[in-house]
Amino acid sequence: MRVSLFFSLLAAATTAFSQYDHRKAYQLEAGTWIENFAPRGSSWYTRLTRIDRPEVLEVDPAHQHGGPRTIYTFPDATNATGITELSTDRYAVLTLNQVDDATTVSIWMLDTSGAQPSANKVIENIGGSELLNGLAAVTSDIVFTTDTLVGGVYRIDLQTGTADKVLSGDSFGPGVNGLRYDEPYLYYTNTNEGVFGRVEVDPITGAPAGEAEVLVSGEILVGVDDFALAYWTEAAFVANFYKNTLVRVNINEGTAEVVVEGIPAPTSATFATSGGLYVSTSGTGGDEGASIWSVTVPDETFVS
Ligand SMILES: *[C@@H]1O[C@H](CO)[C@@H](O)[C@H](O)[C@H]1NC(C)=O
């Protein structure tokens, strides 16, 4: 009895001080660039996009079915950017079609429920946008996306096929990048400004319902891309593309700390449905191709 109490106290102390162990889980071929993960949702698989090609991949976080594999290639497109789960095995995905100097930005609904995934284009060209990037679903019909080149955040209604720029200026200017939703807040990053912030939106209509709030800003966040929201506590794990770091933002405290160094040019992060944090890279950080890293978050407490 006394012995087991001793060991459980020891275990608790070790957990609190242990490192954010990280290791490369998968290396993709040269020339690949993983742009984003669909955030932890209800599917067993983790789905992700490549920006060097118009592709969606999936990976089984339990490693039982091999490494990442392409499950869908969009026609009439050159790149895939944002991806978000709408409901089980239904996703919204953004693509670019870059031909000569013109870019067409489209949004699709991708159905991965069958043996052969299929997609239908909801909006052919989102007028005025140049590089729609982060994507977050508020409901199964309403998604938000950032324009990293021009600045601004669009609200897209997938039922009516309409897109409206609803947030702009200040930290929503050029560089606005990652987006995740955790009711009632839409969380965002700005690469250029080094900002992690949030804005409240109506959980049914998606209408912005308050002023944007910068939670943390500063040099530690200059270069940040996409991020994962923790599901057991108020924290975000943000990929800093420029600095090769993973930064933990403690939302309630308004603090940020580097928890992992040395992931080359990381682009995004997600928790798997079964737990565990994964970080993707662009393959531009000297590792010859995109990679997926597994990171142990010491205080992660599995909640289904
Ligand atoms: C889109 O894909 C093409 C072809 O791989 C590539 O040359 C271009 O840089 C990509 N665009 C972006 C924004 O990554």
TrEMBL record:
Residues 1-16 form the signal peptide. Keywords: Signal. It comes from the Eukaryota. SUPFAM superfamilies: Calcium-dependent phosphotriesterase (SSF63829). PANTHER family: NHL REPEAT-CONTAINING PROTEIN, NHL REPEAT-CONTAINING PROTEIN-RELATED. This is SMP-30/Gluconolactonase/LRE-like region domain-containing protein. It comes from Aspergillus cavernicola.
